[in-house]
Amino acid sequence: MKLLRVVDVSKRFDGQPVVRHLRFELEPGEILAVLGPSGSGKTTMLRLIAGFERVDRGEVWLQEKQLSGSGRHVPPEARGIGFVFQDYALFPHLDVLGNVTFGLTRLGAAERRRRAEEVLDLVGLKLFRRRRPHELSGGQQQRVALARALAPEPRLILLDEPFSSLDAGLRESTRDDVRAILKQAGIGAVLVTHDQEEALSFADRVAVVRDGAIEQLGPPEEVYHSPTTPFVASFLGHTNLIPGQARGRVADTPLGTLPISKEAQGRVLLSLRPEHLELLPPGHAGLEGSIVKRGFKGHDLTFEVATPQGRFRVQTDYRAPWGVGDEVVVRPREAAVVLDSSPSATASV
Ligand SMILES: Nc1ncnc2c1ncn2[C@@H]1O[C@H](COP(=O)(O)OP(=O)(O)OP(=O)(O)O)[C@@H](O)[C@H]1O
Known about the structure:
Elements: E1 4-13, E2 16-26, E3 31-35, H1 42-50, E4 57-62, E5 65-69, E6 72-73, E7 81-85, H2 96-101, H3 109-122, H4 138-150, E8 156-160, H5 168-185, E9 188-193, H6 196-202, E10 205-210, E11 213-218, H7 220-225, H8 230-235, E12 240-253, E13 256-272, E14 277-280, E15 287-296, E16 300-307, E17 310-317, E18 327-332, E19 337-339
Parallel strand pairs: 3-9, 3-10, 7-8, 8-9
Antiparallel strand pairs: 1-2, 1-4, 4-5, 5-6, 10-11, 12-13, 13-19, 14-18, 15-16, 15-18, 16-17
Helix pairs in contact: 3-4, 4-5
This protein binds adenosine-5'-triphosphate.
């Protein structure tokens, strides 16, 4: 049985659609990232699942239990869903143990303590149980918030930008820890984020949202390497959008005749990510141009190449010998991805 089913859920605020025909399912223990720009309705989606907002239409089911829709609205505290939000909201006057046992009102004192010790062990904070929140680092506080959400043994946990207030290094390690903890406990999760790397590295599947609707939903590799729309291609990192004329499995483009990701005929829009292009010395087959920008990133280099057919962004390894002003040839290393730019491509999944 599916852990979570969101069936055609829509929500308006002041007459404005904020969530449009949201539809997805989660397997038990699966982690889904909802990724989209600011204001695209991500937090509202989470609040609808949590029960902090009522759906205008559609249904929300947790396993066999209907939580929302058809006149039904189970309140948040009765849904059996855990939440972790951006600001952790720990009680400053309670120690770690007090924070974690706080919500376990249905258990007796000994049982509350046992369960709290168990989840603190799970998040690696057993030795910190007597500390107050201000005596912990941001990452440790975040793990206390997670322990508190896990203590009542929810099958599903909702995470709203939970790592955004941590600095880069701590964000990555906390994220890895939280993923491992959720996987170990077999708890399903929906993570809301506007950070592409976070979504791709944390989730089993990623839903890319735009204007309140899912534009593409799939495993991280699929949404990154095979985006279906220009929005998804551009939102998940940089890409070169290239017009072409398709003839079956190839297309005529400014970069020459290229293999393409699927059968197509006529005008197409293609996506080639910077790492899917390479630079060669003049004289090789490909499109000639000159380098107008060089960006050093440590482990790799990004070049912008001006050609008579427009500018291209190319990513190479750190040893590439070129600098601004050099003449080069741009050549694709992979088949170009055919995007669906028709209006129906933006319909929800
Ligand atoms: N209670 C509300 N009343 C009226 N409008 C609201 C309410 N909550 C959210 N909105 C509006 O709905 C839209 C989507 O907001 P939401 O917070 O869901 O987006 P988001 O994708 O989570 O954005 P961010 O990444 O900036 O947090 C915004 O235009 C917001 O102003």
